[in-house]
Amino acid sequence: MAIVHKATLTPSKAEIFGAWLADQPWRPGDLSRLIGGYRFDDPAGKVGIECVLLDAGDSVVHLPVTYREAPLEGAEDFRLSTCEHSALGTRYVYDACADPVAVRVLLTAALTGASQEPIDVYDESGFVERRDAVVTAVGSGSRPRNAAPSFDGVTIRSHGAETHVEAGSFAIVVKRLVDGSAADGDESIDVAWPGGSGALVGVRHL
Fold first, then answer.
1. How many separate domains does the chain show?
2. What is the pTM of this model?
3. Long-range own/partner contacts, residues 73-81 (CB < 8 A, 24 or more apart)
4. Rounded to an integer, what distance in angstroms lies between the CA atom of residue 114 and that of residue 40?
5. N-to-C CA span, the chain
6. C-beta pairs of 31-34 under 8 Å, 24+ apart in sequence
């Protein structure tokens, strides 16, 4: 279960993601709206992991991000923003491809066939509602659910409309620009949203 708070984010998600998209040389167009996203939980409960789908003109962009309470050492080039969360305080927003916690979680989901977490919304008085899923995601694999891969860090081999990451003995491909082709890999995370679907994360053993 993913817990989100009824809160204000300054700058807003639209501002953060729009600024990131504007800096990408491959961008198909400017951000027009947030379609939605899917979440997987950090088992330690420390890092928020959200994979966002953005409507950019005639195209859909896939942006996995993490939200941290402190800076991620060595990932300065992959920080999207520092923002203020009205419930949680200062948050550091990163491209999840450079965050080992997120990479491990996405890799585990692909290998084990996990589905995205349901989202429960809280405010200062407690539970408010369960949010209906606009975007769904499920891994294709069938490994045991406790088969989390082990590695020390991640290496980004290429970073563009398709990001290639190495983590231990695995290679991960993250589709940034949804173009009808599947992310290359033996296993994947398959995502569906209003008007489209596709394998947006691919995993293979090196």
1. 1
2. 0.92
3. 75/99, 80/16, 80/17, 80/19, 80/20, 81/11, 81/16, 81/19
4. 9
5. 31
6. 31/55, 31/56, 32/56, 32/57
Q: Is the pLDDT of residue 6 over 60?
A: no
DSSP 8-class letter at 76: G
What pLDDT is attached to residue 129? 72
Nearest-angstrom CA–CA distance, 83 and 93: 8
Length of the chain (residues): 206
* CA 88 to chain CA centroid, nearest Å: 20
Whether 1 shows a pLDDT value over 60: the answer reads no
Banded pLDDT at 47 (limits 50, 70, 90): very high
Domain that includes residue 140, residue range? 2-205
Is the per-residue pLDDT at 36 higher than 60?
Answer: yes
Cβ contacts of residue 36 below 8 Å, gap of 6+? Answer: 52, 53, 133, 134, 135, 193
